[in-house]
Specification:
heterodimer, A: alpha+beta, 48% helix, 10% strand, B: mainly alpha, two-stranded antiparallel sheet, 59% helix, primosome (chain A)
């Protein structure tokens, strides 16, 4: 568990300038955060989601389900509280309002109440362990620093957002079509990437090994600062999952968006990195010379077409795979694998406010992800201003929310994620219950 | 007595295999000597099976090489003068080692991985008939695809098999598939009754029968993209069935180990404290050589010597991290873990470690941020925070198996560097000429640890017969050599902890229990 603690810390370990101004802003935002938790944070929705139907009155409900879920809070001054647990929505709400955490992480559901784990651990029998957890993914733009030139580190802009959009599109399709999952939530992480929560019952009950296998199913990228080839594709044809990603998403995003936005062929140091991927050095230097000498075809498209026709000419049989390898290197999703592999990895809760940017972690519609604009995501100060604009009139809580730009993301969360999820949780519960009744009916009959 | 299925059946059925699923411990009387000796043969004798497998895996051997290796290891180590005792030896040694390896998470993980690998290759060596018998024993309720369903996904199935390099003959087989499928579905429906002798048929059609299986059951095939997935089902070819069986084997064993651990801590350990417990503990104590979590005689370093030591005695993976840290004043998480635990293992004290990391990181982010964000992790590695586990330094096997990402410098240079970068790095260490070629040759054949051993030999101008298995072992051996060159040491005859691993029979007489040769019942496991 503590390993995960470490890994999770990495999230905030990125280097960025700390100025006095920034500190002051944080001071301010702490008061804002109180207002946010007081008026806007959707406790009831989070509670319903995390209960997966067990909050109802159905006889098959597991009353302790929600209270066995780990939450962890990062407070001001980086005080880190792990293994928090709550009896219900009110308990959760009161604690968040009281502690006003800068960051809320969600962990797994354990077999026992995590806040009382020590009481159970005394037998020395290792009985404290996770039993359920959403399948989660974390994609950070920093992982793409070698293929983007608009910004670096934690920054993200409209020129590199397409990389995130590709990741969402490719993965969402695979999760639905290949793995058969339906309840998938995509969330902007507030600064440098996206999170994905797969919430189907089947996904929540995966073992660590099965989680690893899914992460590996996605994994193409072989990185490391010291190896040249980043995406290595083997075999005479691509596996259907890769073939479909290439045909439906990658090639289009590479040719229509990223090539131009990142100006991949306009500067020698940039296209040299692409040519480095070609294993045949003589072919690479031939192209390099062409682009150095002639000034005519300097457009991104022109050079890319030229490169493609040389590589695919059939003269160099071994190089046919190269075009695909280049496109995969520059577009294919790069996951933080460790996050997905273990049940007890923590992930920041949706609708948190990122402490550095002040942006709210809002859901992303995977069908519209190319239009998502991370730079216009509601910020804490924006929301407070919108609240204030309503004046001092006494308002219902809902009325206050409706006034802000958080209303739309919350509506989207409910209608496209929470409601369908609740519906299928109920059905699942009902059918499990009926099966159990039948089972026990049979056995009592035998008696 | 279900486990000794094969014993019971061998008399009337020659085709039955000797491969056990180890579902129950045998109800046998075992001499205490055998209890220990069998375990040693399986675990870590000179030709021992599990050690050999571990070694093979960390050298990155290909599946066909592994198959050969496992077969040879099994034949040499698990032999017995009395052929009827072979199965018992297998069962006893397995169950004894369960006791030895149930006791910590780390031990369980290693044992699970080695036994699963062993089972996988033994299963592959079985004939199709007994493979299918084992499948039935696991109660795998898989139905072959119906013709209509098969037709609807045929193109994708062909694409998958081509993508994993089973090109032409498979395509042909798929064309004649329909005919075979009728035949085979008839055969599969009579699977248990064995009306026909199906071997011949199976061999001919293995490529064209597909089972539809929940993807959860074939994690290995999913991970390597060796199956077609549709709506949560994996389409598994008959010849991939091994993977399903293996994953069942693995999950059964994994659960059993946890249960054994409970029994061990709650009852067995105390009950057997005069008899089995000492044997079990002795068997476990040197399972993979030392874990290097505690500094030894040659490893106790102070901050002022660290640059000089890095230059002379760090293996390449650690030198690289060390130099990157000095240059960039930063390392990403994986690098901090790999280097940090190594330094702990070579004896850098916590205070020195904090000073060391602070000195570098503060140049980039200021010491205040270091104290706030990174110091915790350093203390954590030393078991001073969080769960308070005293983490052990990474072994070569672990380092080789990681997947470094952008900006990462950890991992094994022999595996993760491009050829150019590796050559340059080796040249910096003073490796040149023939030695360089030899090292690169080993790298090409994916013998990463051998490559590292050869680098050690080239740099130190001395031989290293034991081979390099652990960065901290590299360091300890380097120090030993370099220090003996300066001071003529008398310590040559002293038993060195890092050499224990290579002693075929390390259990010393005083570890033996007082009451020997009494029968003991392994079914108390």
């Amino acid at each position: 568990m503590t390993m995960e603690e470490n890994i999770d810390e990495r999230d905030d370990m990125q280097i960025d300038a700390h100025s006095l101004g920034n500190q002051q802003l944080n001071q301010f935002s702490f008061d804002y955060l109180k207002v946010y938790y007081g008026k806007l944070f959707p406790y009831a929705d989070i509670f319903r989601w995390m209960s997966y139907g067990n909050e109802g009155k159905h006889p098959a409900c597991d009353e302790s389900f929600f209270s066995r879920r780990e939450f962890s809070f990062t407070l001001e001054n980086d005080v880190y509280l792990r293994f928090q647990s709550f009896k219900g929505a009110t308990d959760l709400e009161n604690s968040i309002k009281e502690k006003c955490p800068h960051k809320i992480d969600i962990g797994p559901v354990y077999n026992v109440d995590p806040s009382r784990r020590h009481a159970y651990a005394q037998g020395g029998n290792n009985v404290f362990m996770p039993v359920e957890r959403e399948l989660i993914f974390d994609i950070d733009i920093t992982e793409y620093d070698d293929v983007r030139y608009c910004c670096s580190g934690s920054d993200i802009c409209l020129d590199c957002w397409p990389l995130m959009a590709v990741a969402i599109k490719v993965m969402d399709t695979v999760l639905r079509d290949d793995f058969g999952f339906n309840h998938i939530l995509w969330v902007y992480s507030g600064r440098r990437g996206v999170h994905c929560w797969v919430c189907d019952g089947r996904a929540r009950r995966l073992s660590n090994e099965q989680r690893s296998s899914i992460a590996d199913y996605f994994h193409v990228y072989k990185g490391g600062e010291n190896s040249l080839k980043k995406a290595s594709l083997t075999g005479p044809v691509l596996h259907p999952v890769l073939g479909r990603a290439y045909k439906d998403v990658l090639i289009e995003y590479f040719e229509k968006k990223l090539m131009q936005k990142q100006r991949l062929f306009s500067f020698e140091e940039r296209y040299q990195k692409i040519l480095d991927i070609i294993p045949d050095k003589s072919v690479a230097s031939e192209i390099h010379e062409k682009w150095q000498a002639r000034r005519s075809s300097t457009s991104e498209e022109g050079r890319w077409d030229q490169l493609k026709s040389i590589l695919q000419s059939g003269k160099h049989k071994a190089l046919r795979r190269c075009v695909e390898e280049i496109v995969f290197t520059y577009t294919y999703p790069r996951l933080d694998m460790e996050v997905s592999k273990h049940m007890n990895h923590l992930l920041k809760a949706p609708f948190c406010v990122h402490p550095k940017t002040g942006r709210v972690c809002v859901p992303i519609d995977p069908n519209q992800c190319e239009d998502f604009d991370p730079t216009s995501v509601p910020t804490l100060s924006m929301l407070i201003e919108e609240l204030n604009a309503g004046g001092l009139q006494m308002d219902t809580k809902n009325g206050e929310l409706e006034r802000t730009s958080l209303a739309q993301p919350i509506r989207f969360f409910r209608s496209s994620f929470l409601q369908p999820l609740m519906k299928s949780c109920k059905e699942e519960m009902e059918s499990a219950y009926n099966a159990k009744i039948q089972q026990s009916g049979k056995s009592s009959f035998n008696w | 007595m279900e486990i000794i299925r094969s014993q019971k059946k061998t008399s009337d059925d020659e085709a039955a295999s000797n491969l056990s699923l180890y579902r129950r411990a045998p109800d046998l009387e075992v001499r205490l000597d055998d209890f220990e000796l069998y375990a040693i043969d399986r675990l870590r004798g000179f030709y021992a099976v599990l050690r050999g497998i571990s070694d093979g895996l960390s050298r990155g051997k290909r599946p066909d090489e592994m198959e050969k290796l496992v077969n040879e290891l099994w034949k040499t180590s698990m032999r017995h003068p009395d052929a009827t005792q072979l199965i018992n030896k297998d069962l006893i040694s397995h169950f004894v080692l369960r006791l030895v390896y149930c006791r910590t998470e780390e031990l369980r993980k290693w044992f699970l991985s080695m036994e699963t690998t062993l089972f996988r290759y033994r299963f592959r060596l079985e004939n199709p008939e007994s493979q299918r018998m084992l499948m039935t024993e696991f109660q795998l309720p898989y139905k072959a695809l119906s013709n209509a369903e098969y037709e609807s996904v045929k193109d994708k199935l062909v694409q998958v098999s081509r993508s994993i390099g089973q090109s032409s003959n498979c395509v042909i087989n798929v064309c004649v598939g329909i005919y075979w499928r009728i035949l085979v579905s008839a055969m599969l429906s009579t699977l248990n009754s064995r009306v026909v002798d199906p071997d011949a048929i199976v061999d001919a059609v293995v490529d064209t029968i597909f089972f539809k299986v929940p993807f959860e059951e074939v994690p290995e095939l999913v991970a390597n993209r060796r199956v077609f997935l549709l709506k949560g089902n994996a389409y598994v070819a008959m010849n991939q069935v091994a993977s399903i069986v293996v994953s069942h084997f693995r999950s059964n064993l994994s659960k059993a180990l946890v249960l054994t651990n409970r029994k061990w801590t709650s009852t067995i350990k105390e009950q057997e404290k005069d008899r089995l417990t000492p044997i079990v503990e002795a068997l476990g104590s040197s399972y993979l050589g030392p874990d290097y979590s505690q500094p030894t005689e040659f490893t106790n370093i102070s901050l002022k010597d660290i640059d000089q030591l890095a230059n002379s005695s760090f293996p390449l993976c650690m030198r690289h991290l060390f130099n990157k840290l000095r240059d960039d004043h930063h390392l990403k998480h994986g690098g901090r873990m790999q280097l940090g635990l190594f330094l702990k293992g070579v004896g850098l004290k916590l205070e020195d470690a904090l000073a060391f990391w602070r000195a570098e990181f503060s140049q980039k982010i200021g010491s205040e941020r270091f104290d706030k964000e990174y110091a915790y992790a350093v203390r954590h590695n030393y078991g001073k925070e969080g769960k308070r586990t005293d983490y052990t330094p990474y072994s070569c096997q672990k380092i080789i198996s990681v997947n470094p990402s952008v900006g990462d410098h950890h991992g094994c240079p022999y595996r993760h560097f491009s050829e150019e970068n590796l050559r340059a790095a080796l040249a910096k260490m003073g490796v040149a000429g023939h030695a360089m070629d030899d090292v690169m040759d080993k790298v090409k054949n994916r013998h990463y640890q051998v490559a590292c051993t050869m680098t050690f030999e080239a740099v130190h101008a001395a031989s290293c017969d034991a081979g390099i298995n652990h960065p901290n072992q590299y360091f300890a051996q380097s120090r030993k050599l370099l220090e003996s060159k300066v001071v003529i040491s008398e310590s040559r005859s002293k038993a060195r902890p890092d050499l224990m691993f290579f002693n075929p029979h390390p259990a010393s007489p005083n570890m033996k229990p007082n009451v020997s040769n009494l029968p003991c019942y392994t079914n108390l496991i």
